[in-house]
């Protein structure tokens, strides 16, 4: 997603959050309006129109009336949220905060700084978080319900071909230039001296807490976990197996109120206080400190990646195998280091590349591997990577030979939508649903 897409995406979110309150000052009439209501949850006309514009801009493959399909999906989403309340399916606020942290870090990275993001939209980071929190929580609840309802759906090649054959030729999307690119990313490992210093700092903080200073106050001041730091370090209740193994083992070995010595996980070093245990669930708070690598640590990582690059160029080593073994980017390492789009296809539009990657491959030839260079990962961590520019496909109209993965994904989504529609038919009798008469032609409430 490039900067232009980031700005458009954020703007659509903020418009959908605020437009319901907009009024014509002369007439006192609400500009936006409710097009559907599911119990206490509403679908706004702006929400429908924005979703439609986003869908059309992506050039996705579909069948039938797009706007009706989107409205039905929005209504189903609201029903899933309402049903989640009835069925006690919940998403913890701390999980929403963690998701929100990742998104905001990504947005900040694309804009260059928090100040630039705030200046562009004339909103503070806190205002962004407040406006996005409820929407992201709803999205996470919907995802959880979708997993319960239709996660195990599969599709055969014959079903994919049948789906594609039903799409009118003039309705097939036209894809822009697409590329296959991968990377091997390494997070420089801080040396032992730096780690020891962090341990000593955390032990000092532990001593201060045990001397009477409030844990929450020090968490807000020192913890590098922004989501929990705002809550005084508290993470909320988790089940066994949901947190880092080292963190969980330490936490469950404590008595309520007891504070651990520093413990290392993949995220850094923590001191942990157990607040409460309820069977297999436990609530803790922590202070996280992340040791920073030195310049020599970073150079050591660059030297390591350069040795991998030399081995690949000499044809003695395979890029995909090395990425699986060594890359610290877990989102791509499973794909042999290659990036994928929303459908899972390892060929992505150049329009969707982040600016750093776009300008990197713009200076490369197909088949080349870059020299190691520093960059920031989506979560904000400093890292070093080498980039492999494997292939480039010119603009073309969708076809089974070149775009099978995209078409398969669309066919699978269509099948899942059918399952969701069946679920909707069964569940809609349990809640109040009203859809504006102007959308009667969509026949969403028809039996």
TrEMBL record:
Record keywords: Isomerase, Rotamase, Signal
Signal peptide residues on this chain, from the entry's feature table: 1-22
Top-level class of the enzyme under EC nomenclature: isomerase
EC code: 5.2.1.8
All residue ranges annotated as the PpiC domain in the record: 176-276, 279-374
Domain of life: Bacteria
Protein name, UniProt field: Peptidylprolyl isomerase
Species per Swiss-Prot/TrEMBL record: Reichenbachiella ulvae
